[in-house]
Amino acid sequence: MSEEGYVMAWMVYLGAAVVTLATLWWLSWRWSLAAKLTLRAVAIAVLFMPWPVAMDTDTLGPAWVVTLFDTLVQSDGTPLRAGAPLLTTIVLALLIGAGLYAWRRTR
Length: 107
Fold this sequence. Notes:
- The chain is mainly alpha-helical.
- The chain has one domain.
- It is 73% helix and 6% strand.
- The chain has a two-stranded antiparallel ribbon with strand order 1-2.
- A hairpin with a 7-residue loop joins strand 1 and strand 2.
- The protein is globular.
- The termini are far apart.
- 11% of the residues are buried.
- The model has no long low-confidence stretch (mean pLDDT 89).
- It comes from Alcanivorax quisquiliarum.
- Keywords: Membrane, Transmembrane, Transmembrane helix.
- This is MFS transporter.
- The chain crosses the membrane at residues 6-25, 37-54, 82-103.
C-alpha cells in the first residue's frame, strides 16, 4: 500500500469512528451517568487505540482490527499481540470512567 493510500484509509477510518462515537453519544444521552461515562470511555479506547500491524513494521492500524486479523486470518498469529494492550486500555478506560463518575457525584 502506498503512503497516500495508507493516509487515506486512516482518514476514512477516523471519520467513521468519529461518526460512530457521535452516534453513541447521542443514543446514550438519557442513560444514567455511570453507564454513559463508562460506555463512552470504553468506546473511545477501542476505536482510537493504534497498534503495529506486523512485528517488523512501523505501520499502525486500529488495535481491534489487528487483534481480529491475528485471530481469524493469521495461521501463526497470536491474538494477544494487540489484544493484551487493548484489554489493558479497556480496563484503564473503565477505571477512568468510574473515577469520573465518582468525582461527578461528589461534586
